[in-house]
Design a protein that fits this description.
The protein is an all-alpha fold. The chain is about 70% helix and about 0% strand. The longest helix is centred in the C-terminal third of the chain and has 20 residues.
Length: about 170
């Protein structure tokens, strides 16, 4: 079993509502459409007050609903959710999938999203490197910035690689 199964098992053990267990079971069996519908109904019930509101479980419903939407390639829907929730990381991920990054208006929008994200993640570093790579055509003097960005990203990846177990299990091969 992998880390996601372990996490799902812990959540299922301590969850209060049967919707959580049912949705996670469907999600583990890769039935994302069914899991997403169950999670959506559970969120609606909690918002309407027909079931008690527990923030921890509500957060689980939201994050797993988002995961289902990503698996189902519902990037337009996720983009709308990112705008409503003011979730810059999700908005950036949606932009990565949906837009042509070589267009000027997309570049401007992406740069605005980058400026809103304070923490440095590997995903953000990779996207910044991609933007710098696209800018090399227009301004070759950005070569040093691109090389520095790629060096930093390579170092991060190598650090993660060294933290993998010596004898990987099949769960690490996905």
């Amino acid at each position: 079993l992998g880390e996601t199964e372990m996490s799902s098992g812990i959540i299922r053990r301590y969850s209060i509502f049967p919707e959580t267990n049912i949705a996670l079971s469907f999600e583990q069996n890769k039935l994302w459409i069914v899991a997403q519908k169950i999670l959506e109904k559970a969120q609606l019930k909690a918002r309407s007050g027909s079931i008690p509101f527990f923030e921890d479980e509500f957060i689980v419903w939201g994050s797993h609903w988002e995961n289902c939407a990503k698996k189902l390639q519902q990037w337009d829907l996720l983009s709308e959710v990112a705008k409503v929730d003011n979730n810059t990381n999700l908005a950036l991920e949606c932009e990565w999938v949906l837009n042509d990054w070589s267009r000027n208006e997309t570049k401007t929008h992406i740069e605005n999203l980058f400026s809103q994200i304070k923490e440095s993640t590997k995903q953000k570093q990779m996207m910044e490197s991609f933007i710098l790579l696209n800018q090399l055509k227009e301004s070759p003097e950005k070569s040093a910035s691109f090389q520095s960005s790629m060096d930093n990203l390579t170092q991060e990846i190598l650090i993660n690689w060294t933290q993998l177990p010596d004898q990987p299990s099949p769960a690490h091969c996905h």
